[in-house]
Write a structure and sequence with these properties.
By secondary structure, the chain is α/β, with parallel strands linked by helices. Helix content is 44%, strand content 21%. It is built from 9 helices and 7 strands, in the order αααβαβαββαβαααββ. A 7-stranded mixed beta sheet has the order 3-2-1-4-5-7-6, sandwiched between helices. Strand 4, helix 6 and strand 5 form a beta-alpha-beta unit.
């Protein structure tokens, strides 16, 4: 749930906070992040034998949830090796048979049209090049394949928006520093949420990358947004 200015900075930061990442996610979100991931999974259409890629998989939260609801083979990709090590242990403990790959969203090491589902939860803000990452996700999705993006967003103005801003700016960095021991990591969260695209502009970037957006679903008063999209089916031209 963090963001960094460039790829190498992101890797170093996530490696540093990997041991406390899961605890902090639960504490800082009051456990609601798990509900958001389940909501993402419920929007997917399960198909036998499908291949699923979770980009920026972190410590494997979404992969484990997907394994319980979606038949098929699972692949997780992340930039940070420490995150992947923890994900590997968690998947083994949960009895999940999945593959983990180190890599960046902007240059996915997979063949074109090789996945039926691509997901990314709280990682898209960390893409060094958002447009390139979305083009890559379009490339590896088969025609008609499902894309799901879960990311923090800014609530509408009003009391809820004011409380959200106060909590993110005044409380989250202090708790993050206390639990993780990292002096700067969680100061990125409020600034990155404020700087990231709103749902309308993100939808437009997705469309420019060749993806079809079906819905942008605000969660918990707009604290997060679930984007439902797909790679459009191929259109056969008549001869």
């Amino acid at each position: 749930m963090l963001v960094a200015a460039n790829r190498e900075e992101a890797r170093r930061m996530f490696d540093a906070i990997a041991p406390t990442y899961d605890v902090l996610n639960r504490v800082l979100s009051f456990g609601v992040d798990a509900l958001w991931r389940r909501r993402l999974i419920r929007t997917l259409q399960p198909l036998a034998g499908q291949r699923i890629l979770d980009v920026a998989c972190g410590t494997g939260d979404l992969l484990i949830g997907l394994s319980q609801e979606m038949p098929g083979s699972l692949v997780g990709l992340d930039l940070a090796p420490e995150m992947l090590q923890i994900a590997a242990r968690r998947l083994r403990k949960a009895g999940v048979d999945g593959s983990l790959v180190r890599g960046a969203a902007e240059c996915l090491p997979f063949a074109s049209a090789s996945f039926d589902v691509v997901s990314v939860a709280f990682g898209i803000r960390n893409f060094e090049d958002l447009s390139a990452g979305l083009r890559e996700m379009h490339r590896v999705l088969r025609p008609g394949g499902q894309l799901r993006i879960l990311e923090f967003s800014r609530p509408r103005r009003g009391l809820w928006g004011s409380l959200f801003t106060w909590y993110f700016v005044a409380v989250v960095p202090k708790i993050g520093r206390w639990i993780s021991g990292h002096p700067e990591a969680y100061t990125y969260l409020p600034t990155s949420v404020a700087a990231f695209h709103d749902s309308d502009s993100l939808d437009q970037i997705l469309r420019t990358a060749g993806l079809k957006v079906s819905a942008s679903i605000p969660l918990t008063g707009g604290i997060a947004t679930l984007t439902v999209a797909e790679r459009p089916p191929s259109v056969l031209m008549a001869s």
